[in-house]
Amino acid sequence: MGIAWLTLFSALLTGLVGSGHCAAMCGGIATGFPAMAPRASWRYVVEPNLGRVLGYAAAGAIAGGIGHGIVDVAALPWLRTALRTGTGLLMIVIGLRLGSAIRATPYSGTAGGLWRVLKPLQRRLLPANSSGRRLALGALWGWMPCGLSTSLLTAAWLQASAANGALTMAVFGLGTMPVMLPLAWSGAQVGRRLLQGGLRAAAGVVVAVGGVVTVAAPWLVAMPALHGPLRLLGCLPV
């Protein structure tokens, strides 16, 4: 299944506008890395956050790979359309969440159980006195479960492709950077404009509309005039 640009754009918007959720959930972790530095150093800010994006991408690759395996084993012609419809419905849900206040609540369940297995690895990587350790700690940070990242991970699974799943999660992680990097550097509340209700609501509408288009794509193919735009958005094969 080709990468859907609407899904990637939605992932980017979700990361950008949902950064307030990330700041509330992970602010202590973000500001903790610079506190480990013997002196002010950008490495203690950039490397853990880069590792976090890599952790997201790895999780997305695994989820997308599992989805791909299910599609290959089932070999049902309608399954790819069903997965694309599921992606669109999930985008609508994420858009509605973005349009309202996103609560900073952890996600429990399978992801929470996996995190309990991974969490002890943090102690083995301390002190974070090398680039490798900081990247690895950041990657573990990316696996810490929360409702927002798990929603995007579900979208990655629905991509039914390891590469597309990794790309979806990486774009989501990059979207959080404009808030998380300054937060980690200064410990201050930053990016308030990104978190204001008006912009957040507008982003939610864009994501939700993208979800509607994704769901409706199989029916929109009956309109030849829309084939070009739908291919550009990744809703139809090129």
Automatic annotation (TrEMBL):
One Pfam family hit: DsbD_2
Family matches, as InterPro entries: UreH-like_TM_dom
Domain Urease accessory protein UreH-like transmembrane: 11-211
Species per Swiss-Prot/TrEMBL record: Cognatilysobacter lacus
Keywords carried by this UniProt record: Membrane, Transmembrane, Transmembrane helix
Transmembrane annotation, as ranges: 56-79, 135-160, 166-185, 197-221
Name under which the protein is recorded: Sulfite exporter TauE/SafE family protein
PANTHER family per record: HEAVY METAL TRANSPORTER, HEAVY METAL TRANSPORTER-RELATED
Top-level taxonomy: Bacteria, Pseudomonadati, Pseudomonadota, Gammaproteobacteria, Lysobacterales
